[in-house]
Amino acid sequence: MATAVELERAHGAGHGDDHGHADHPPTSTGLDHRKLLMWAFLASDCMFFGSLIATYMIYRGRAEDLGFAPFPSEILDIPYTSLSAFVLLMSSLTMVLALAAIQKGDHRGLRIWLAATALLGAIFLGGQYFEFTEFYHEGLSLQTNMFGASFFVLTGFHGAHVTIGVIWLLTLLFLSLRGGVKQEDSLDVELAGLYWHFVDIVWIVIFTLVYLIPYDEVTETQTGAFTYLAGILRGVASIF
Amino acid sequence: MASVAQPAGHAGPATQTVARPATKKNIGFWSWITTVDHKRIGLLYGITAFAYLLIGGIEALVIRSQLIAPNNDLVSLEKYNQFFTMHGTTMIFLAVMPLSSAFFNFIIPLQIGARDVAFPRLNAFSYWVFFFGGLILSLSWLANAAPNQGWYGYAPLTEKGFNIGRNVDFWALGLQVLGIASIAASLNFIITILNMRAPGMTLMRMPLFTWTTLITSILIVMAFPAITIALALLSFDRFAGTSFYIPYIYDEATRQVVARGGDPLLWQHLFWIFGHPEVYILILPAFGIVSEIIPVFSRKPLFGYAVMVYATATIAFLGFGVWVHHMFTTGLGPTPNAVFAASTMLIAVPTGVKILNWTSTMWGGQLNFTTPMLFSTALVSQFVIGGISGVMHGSPPIDSQHNDSYFVVAHFHYVLFGGSIFALLAGTYYWFPKFSGRMLDERLGKWHFWVTFAAFNITFFPMHFLGLEGMPRRYGTYGEGSGLQLWHVVSSVGSYLLGFSFLIFMYNVAVSLQRGKKAGNDPWDGATLEWTIPSPPPVYNFATVPVVRHRDPLWEEKYAKYEGEGHAEEETLETTIAGIKIGEGQVPDEDALEQAERRAAADDEHNIHLPNPSYWPLVTALGVFLAAFGLIFSYPRIPIGALDLPLYTAAGLLVLVAGVYGWSLEPAS
Amino acid sequence: MAHQAHGGSYVGPVESQGPGTKPGTDHEVDNHEHHPGARTYVEVAVVLAIITAVEVAIYYIEALESILVPLLIVLSIAKFVAVVGYFMHLKFDDRRFRFMFIGGLVITFSVFIGLLAMQTFKEFATYDIPIPAHREGAEEPAGH
Ligand code: HEM
Ligand SMILES: [Cu+2]
Description:
The complex is a heterotrimer of chains A (240), B (669) and C (144).
Chain A: H1 2-11, H2 33-59, H3 62-66, H4 72-75, H5 78-103, H6 107-137, H7 146-177, H8 186-212, H9 215-239
Chain B: H1 8-11, H2 29-33, H3 38-66, H4 77-111, H5 120-142, H6 167-195, H7 208-240, E1 248-251, E2 256-259, H8 264-298, H9 305-318, H10 334-362, H11 371-393, H12 396-402, H13 406-436, H14 442-468, H15 485-515, H16 553-558, H17 563-569, E3 574-577, E4 580-583, H18 590-602, H19 616-632, E5 637-640, E6 643-646, H20 647-665
Antiparallel strand pairs in B: 1-2, 3-4, 5-6
Chain C: H1 26-34, H2 38-60, H3 68-87, H4 95-120
Helix pairs in contact in C: 2-3
The site of protoporphyrin IX containing FE has 24 residues of chain B, from helix 8, helix 10, helix 11, helix 12 and helix 13.
């Protein structure tokens, strides 16, 4: 029997009768299909947000270069956004608590923490809505300058991800209230959680690159680092 | 077709019951619409993609006919732009990629000993989204607004200022939808291959086609998001008045040039960050197919299996680091050019390794030049020509001569036609018996091969000369005394012959479907698992799940002489690349395999679970289609709160949401 | 009972079927051994909150101006790693998940760092934007 278990780990030759969970998918890797799917999707989503963030970084400072106000340094509200970032960060905590609850079979806990996560997500979205309208009133739109365009598109795509996440969480909450999320179904919650945390880490990156790094220095710092890099590359190239 | 009832005894040693016996209900029209069977989806992909291959071919013939004479006016220059754009887009996204998908779908589960893919409904969804994406692109002809900016869509030609019609919108949204299909399908295949292998099939025992499918899928998943964003930014430029790719505009009111701050180079970067991996997405499945065929018809296991796997992985990984070789002439400067020239040269090394392995497989083998083998060996020789011209313009000074000339056109047709299409044809001849139960006619097949081979070279080889003599790409005309006409005529005549070769092929298919020789399980004396089951396979594929003890499981079963080979192979089951362990350490334990085998045999008494057919993938895909369609035909509009949505988009989003909910609440089987 | 009891041959789709990880399977046993509990999660969240507070604080401290950018980047990487490692369980989960996600990150980073380097540090001015009149005499756009 021991060999069978080993084989099952390494090559997924199915479960021995001692487990008796016929509907648990025996897989070659021993990893669940859906969880593997979610991680592969998240790897792909890295590239998605990578492209968006790189676009933002390329155009960072262009509004200042061309003198097209409003500039980010005048308009970004750091205390306000810090609060939003904090809210989203805490929603990651409530999310993981929801998962811990259902893994222990605590349905009440699951519902409370799911509701809390969805609520925090909704607060974040509300905050983003007010931020967008505020900027709009101060004269920043998609068309105003490169800052407007790249800012709204980047944070807008992130907001869309959050919106999908909130809908997903509410659906789980609804299903749980109808008794549809059992302890064995904890993977359903785990998958929503992985997605949710991913959206959170994207915001961690955005918060730093878009909001915190000051706009007057950035071009210098960026150029400084890359001058150094380019020097190395030149050196390597000169060997040929 | 594939699900037509098979006598149960036919399928395997033991009798067994099937959950859903094939009845009339299972073979009608609606059963194809709602099917989640990977074999049927594979056939749907194949048929649709072949139709697009013909459409793309006709577009190519129009291009060649225009160029047969100087100052020709068969089509207007505006129409000519549409023809070459649609030709490229169709061939890449609607013909070669989905033809590869057809093989993934049909063959992969059979090769790994599985009864379906990991997510059957997601698979159906991928097909339908692909279908609708193709529809969007095709509808552009009806709207008299076919895309006209080239398959690479360089900004700012795609911007409203230069391209006021809907042409670019059809293209951008069509590709966006096709991207969803590709990513969904690839995620599915990654999970299927990793998770659904038969007991004993370790990673380093997977057939090479399975390996290249896995790696191609990873490439798709990682490369497509870049073009998704590139296209999204383009659509924002066109619909929302941003200027991501617009450096400056001319302001009518003040009669001044006004800076906008965008950068057209960003498009090129994002496009080629996707685009170079894309060319490997087009060629790696082809490499996988010939790596299956050459060993079978050389009667020898593949030479250097492990090296082949690493070469594929290396090509894929390096493929993300060479994109700037498409941009050597954009003035990025000497450092980027030098770095990317070096990486481009580097990537030719694993590619050359593959050529070496194929020729070494054939070396000393008992060669049997059937049609699939002919096409495979043709790939090896023709791809070398394309690879060498690729390495030539991998050098920036040379590329400044080649860039935007017909020489590049020659290059990529040698790799795409001489590579991908030859391999897909080889694969069709090789696996047709498995799809249909009948062999394709060999005599017609040989005719088909030789005509194709000759016509291909007559059409594309002269393009090298044309390019070096100064014929630019994408031009719909050339001057009387330019001295270019001779080779244009040769090339055009070749293209007609090439068109004719496809008629031979279609005739062969039509005749063989009716009267072809019955194939039986294993017509080629193959080495892999798909040849252990009936042709066409029953719905459930494997009556008894196979247990794998060798890299060429069927050969091992048939010929004990390969046993020696088997012991040598086990050493390569695991290796370390850059500190990361690849492969699975231990060789599967024989006792455990026997146990798995006994369990599989005992299993026959029980029902085999098959996924239920479902409408929801189609509904969800329809939602995607409507949403994209609404962005192209943006009227009528309905205001919802602050949003002012096009009617079709709003409806599409509703259908999409309904589809997703219906899908996830429906029991899977 | 175990009528699907063979490895790669699992026949039904698992989409929305629900029964993913079940208690009692090997997989789950592993989880119970290593997975942190609610207490750890709260601790991590407190650390994350503190880092965020520090980030915002140093943004306002003039003395740190010269090292602000690297500092911010290091802090956000710390947050990133904490969320991925603890909340997404990547630190405790199967190494193949780690391989997948980190592989995605590595490709993304290498590609876009390369792109940013080329765009920031153009050796060759590829466009020549007329500077609007009210900025006449302003310094050259950086990065050229
Ligand atoms: C040995 C490997 C290869 C090398 C070194 C290579 C190199 C290149 C280079 C440098 C270019 C840019 C030429 C220019 O526009 O000036 C190019 C273009 C192209 N290559 Fe390759 N290539 C290789 C293999 C392939 C393969 C396998 C495919 C597809 C199956 C492919 C498809 C293309 C296409 C479609 C273009 C034209 C893109 C356009 O529309 O501008 N290449 N190749
Ligand atoms: Cu390339």
